[in-house]
Predict the 3D structure of the following.
Amino acid sequence: MIPSLASRHSWFEATARKRIAGLLDPGSFVEILPPAESSPSPHLAKLDLPGAFDDGIVIGCGQLEKQPVFIAAQEGQFIGGAVGEIHGAKLVGLLKRAAREKPAAVLLLIDSGGVRLHEANAGLIAISEIMRAVLAARAAGVPVLALIGGSCGAFGGMGIVAKLCSAILISEEGRLALSGPEVIETVAGVEEFDSKDRALVWRVTGGKHRYLMGDCAMLVEDDVSAFRAAATAFLADWQEPAPSVGLLRATQRQLENRLTAYGAYRDGLQVWAALGVAQPETVPLLDRDSLVALKEGLPT
Amino acid sequence: MEKLNFQFDSVPASLAANPALCGVVGSGNLEILIKTGIEPAVCRVSIKTSARGFGETWRAVLGEFAANHPAGGTVIAINDMGATPAVVTLRLAQGLAEYLGGAQ
């Protein structure tokens, strides 16, 4: 076997618990509400569906390169990582505690399609509480970092939550958007968006596109230790800015300009050409390092 | 969903990591939580499964597990999303190894 393959641990393929184990300093993770003390979703039980002991999210405290951090990891294999009432309450509780205890950072390992539709209003309320709690933690000076690279990406309410974080680290395999591809196709028709066209889905929502557009601070290899190195490097240079209206206005202007510049395009290929990429059709084949070099060479 | 409960006689297990969890409630997969019970020579299992009508298959798979492994004194809770008997057998062995202090 090729040694580099043997020592690689795919983030995409790992479970939530494996991601935490590989991301934090070995042995430092202490789970809050572990499976034996937590309870499965009562809503799923009413619908006659088996729940998960941890309701699809693992939360706790640990260390990243000896810095104290709080961490939450969604399990994408359990109902698409969707946010139900208990799932959401665990995440909100962790973020509120972070605002009080001020760890060096909160790491959100997002792998979710958004609200758990089985839990309807409880899930929607949970998402809005998570959004508020992310902003409260940041206002208290605690950076909240989103790590995206699981099979469910970050969609729906969790897409919004990701964009409320201090920054996003994403792998090529990761995806980030509001409405998922299937939702767009269902609502607006296959002419608008063909969700079966996987290459198109990635050209519009995938990690490379998000990185080129500046939506994500770093593009990371699909490897647990690469995410660990990236999170460590990012936090070493990051000072959480104080919330300000000026900052919000500047972001709003940026988004308006972006809509004007790219709003009419239908494919990442067109956007990349407009960004100044000479051969946009080669982007999907570039490895991580080449793509980062390409972005650094783009006109700003 | 179907809820099933079984109990089997089994050689007492030596406790190391209580409780132990393995697996994920994903399609074709299951999660197993092993805790310490009060009867040293009995293995109690409770199952919530999305697949109905497989009670006898569960009994056969779990019975073989309890006969071939030292699983006495444990209480095992399972959330299942349609795992095959082979996957169930694998996860039980994995969960017990973790409970007994073995690495994953």
